[in-house]
Structure formats: C-alpha cells, structure tokens
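Quick one:
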Amino acid sequence: MRQYETFELKFQVENQTSGYDDMSITAQFQCGKEQKTVRGFYDGNGVFKVRFFPDKAGEYTWKISGAVNDEGCAACESADDRQHGMVKAVGKHFEYEDGTRFIPFGTTVYALLHQEDALVEQTLKTLRHAPFNKIRMCLFPKDYDYNHNEPPLYPFEKKGDGSWDAGHPCLAFWNRLEKILDRINEMGIQVDLILFHPYDRWGFSSLTQKENILYLDYLLRRLSAKPGAWWSLANEYDLCTESKSLDDWKELEHYVAEHDPYGHLLSCHNCFCYWDIKRPNITHASLQTNALSEIPRWIAAYQKPVMIDECGYEGDLPYSWGSLSAHEMVRRFWRSYASGAYCTHGETFLSEDEVIWWAKGGELKGESSQRIAFLRSIIESVPGNLTPYDGMFALLDKMNPEQMEAYLADAPEESKKSFRAMSVSISRMDGKDHTAHFAGAHEWCAHAGEEAYLWYNDHQCYGEQFLPLPQDKTYQVEVVDTWNMTRKVLKKHVSGETVIHLPRKENLAVLAVREKN
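Output:
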C-alpha cells in the first residue's frame, strides 16, 4: 500500500455463479483514529474486489463483511514524488491533496472509449506529447454527426428480450475502460468522465431511474478509488428532459456525491441552461459558453472554480461551434485564464474517414495546441492563482457613492466630474443592455494578489499602456506575443503607475511579476 495510490484486495469465492444480484461487500479501513467505509464490487468468475485510496501514510487495518468476510492489515508507505493525491476544488481554484497547485488545461475526445484499439493507441500517443492535463470523455457511446460507428463493447449485458441489463455490467467493457483510464492518468492527465448525455441511439439515455442508480452504484464501487477521475454528471444535461426531470437530475447528483467515499470533483455541463452551480455537491462550474466577459461575475457568484469546458472548437465543420480559427481558439483560452478561469480545447477538422479529434481522437491537426502549451508555461510560472482584476469600467460598476468619492479623492476636479457622470449612467442601465455593453468594453485582466498582474489585450493595438502597479513593490514587466509565442522584458524595477510602449498589434499580453529582493 502506498499513499495516493489505489490499493486493491481480491477475493475468490468458490461456487459463485453470479455476484451481481448481491454486491453487499463492505470494507472498513482504519488508520489511527480515522476510519473510512468503502464498498466492493463483483468482477466475475467468483471474484470480489475492494479498492481503497489511502490519503496518508501509516498502519492500516481492514475488515471485510458481506459476500466476503476477512480482515487484515497493511503498512502504507509515503507517496513518491510523482503522486500528489486527488485534485480538489479549494476556493476558486484547484489543487492536489498535498497542496500542489493544479491548473487544468483541457481537451475533448467524447467517444474515445468507444473506438477500436488502434485508434485508441494513436490517441494516447498524441496525448503523451500534447499540452493537456485534463480530458473530457463519455462513458456511454455517442451517436452524433461524424460519430456513427458501433463501439467494440457496451457497458451492460443484455436481457433475453434484448433490452439492457443495468444490473449486469459487461466486464470486458469495464476492464478496458480502466486500462485506458489508468494509462491516461499515468501521463498526468485527469479524466473528466461524463456519466450521461443525450446523443444516443442505443437506449442508454432513456434508462429508468432505477437502472440509472444501478449503473452509478457499480461505477462508484469500481472507480471511486481511482485518483485521476472527475465526475461530470452530464454533457448537456438540459437536452435530456424527455427522459430525466430536474428532480431526477438532482437525485442522480445526490447519489454520486453520497456514495463516493472520496469526494471526487463533481460538475454538470449545460447546453443552454446552466446547472445550479451553488448546489453544495457541485465542486466547480463546467460551462458551455463563449460569453467569457461574464467570467468575473460567475466567479464572484459561485465562489468556486469556473471551467469553460466548451467554448467552441478549432476546425472547419459546417457549424458555428466547430469552425473556429486557431487564432480564435487561442484567444478564448487567453480570455479565460486572464479572467481567473480555466478552459477546454477541442478540434473539429473535416476528414473523409470521420476521425475527428473532438469525437474520436487520433492526431491533432490544428495550430492552437502548441500555443496553448505556451500559455500553460506562462500561467504555471505565475507565483500564485489568478483571480479577476477589475478594469476601470468594472470598478466603476461596483462602486457605491462613498467608495467612488474615496477612490477619486486625489483626482483632478475634471476627472471627478467625468467619473461621477459615468457612474450615474451605468447605474441607470437596463440589465440586458448592461451585459451587452460591458461585454464589448471588457478588459481581460487578472492578478495573483500583489505578486503578479496579467493583462490580455486581445484585439487592442496599444502603442502605450498604463499599468496601475502597487507603489510599495517593484516589478519586472514583459510583453507576450500569444501567437508567435515570444516573451520580451520591457522594464525592470518599476512600481506605481507605469507606462509601457507596445508595438501596436493585437494578440499581445502583458505580465508584471513582483521582483524578489
């Protein structure tokens, strides 16, 4: 047993013809005064398994009851340098259990699990050299444009009448899933496993609620001790309304949270109507949107991490969501991270064989991924987590009259008049007009306390830019060309109101990092 790694106990039960009807196998693990109860699962051929995820080193005792009765002990060694535990939501950001920051840079291969082995191998080879440390994929097969192949295996066996037997898992499917999951995790990539979705021709989206619970029960017994898994309750939950009511969704969310002994990350992705991110079981926002100027508002409202899990894909499909230029894909990533959020990539280039990354995987063909790698190197170098930093208009929008006067105390009288007039006008705006107007005037900026400040200038072509830095600290200022992937130091040892000169071109960012004395 080793800290932060899955520990498995395996039991052979003689004369066991089927364990699916009675999986009442429970284990209690204890280390010192801490105790955790986990549930085991049947793995066929008379084999029962119990999996445990130890989050600390020490001496453990375990006791099994139910279909198997046994007890024992094991010494758990401290984690090696590669293992950091499960990723958790901490405030508005993510970190591993040992406190190491986790900054997600996602990609999407919805139907990876449902491709033939050769294509899976090619996809894993691509992932090994790609910049992504999170991948979204569906557990159930997906039927959608450019994605009509039959999967090699299905999650359940069938009944005599041809319908799915949700209480009888297809073990070959689950074993293959685990092998793929483990290999992806070994690359340092988290798997955001989508548990339900509407794009279906096999009947998985229309299972009864009892069958849904049977499926989740087996999944959680089997996979909960895997540290590299996240639970995405659904992809586009709001398009499943014919088969699942809102109360059904809430019941499923509750079941996953209640029966996962380790508290994996849990989200629910939308097509249009956002899930209620404030619900206690939901650990972070998983949003489909390109209204990225609203990110600071969502972060403030949810007080949780915000993942822009779908903002369109680089490609050339005949749909607006699947025909972004590489430039625009990169821009959307920069807008997200320069607002204190996180983003997920996808690629949708037409192909005669219909092997498209967003659906099936294969090889990356676009130009955005290498620039996302460049962005990742910058964000990971920032000394702290980025949170939204109010530009001038956002600041005006939030101030009450007393705050306004304090802010303007040392300003010239003409500036005071102008700011007061703008503040009054903003306060009179209709809500919809306010959202539309401020989206167009949004400033993409974030900060890590007073350690670093990041401005993404997007389409702006500044010749000079004013940086409101703290007076009592000094900074090094760099200009970043986000497309050409270059960094250049412009100034050192600056503080307070700082003016920098820029080359009057778009797609630039400015990074100011505090100097250490």
